[in-house]
Amino acid sequence: MQTIALEVKNVVKSYETDTGIINAVNDVSFQVHAGEFVALVGPSGSGKTTMLSILAALLSPTSGEVLIDGQDLAVMDESERVRLRREKIGFTFQSNNLIPFLTAQENVELMLRLNGRLDRTGKVRAGELLARLGLGDRLRNLPGQMSGGQQQRVAIARALIHSPSVVLADEPTASLDTERAFQVVQTFAALVHENQRAGIMVTHDLRMCAYVDRVLQMQDGKLVRTFENKKEILALARDSAHP
Question: Domain 35-57+84-241 is in which class?
Answer without folding.
Answer: alpha beta
